[in-house]
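Assess this one:
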Amino acid sequence: MVTNSAPRPQNLEKIVEKFKRRDNPKQKYEQLLWYAKKLAPMAQEEKTEANKVLGCVSQVYITSTLEDNQIFYQGDSDAQLVKGLVAFLIEGLNGLTPLEVINLTPDFIEETGLQVSLTPSRANGFFNIFKKMQQQALTAETKLEKEK
């Protein structure tokens, strides 16, 4: 198993640990649905092609804002389970610096055990959502560098 050279962000680590404690795929699904219910609604005007996650069977949108060198995400999906994956990532990554998000390796996805529970297309979608968030972090970091 590949591990991060840097410690994993605390919020993300807590979520990963929650999923690792659930052996039953049904419990993992229930946890994802719980996250989906907690996700703040996304404004309809934010659901644009530019914010759409490519490579997902479901409609998935991610936006980000930068405040005091911390990145904050918002997202939505038309599928409840995928909405739970979006919420998982938002809760785990919100408040990090763009560089922390960029440098994060996706090994935590495998550690949750979710790829066993998810269909291959959903597992791939989960990875694509994460990559979209990293792309937005890279854009934010580039903007920060230009401002220096």
In short: The beta strands are 60-67, 70-77. The radius of gyration is 15 Å. The longest strand covers residues 60-67. The mean pLDDT is 92.
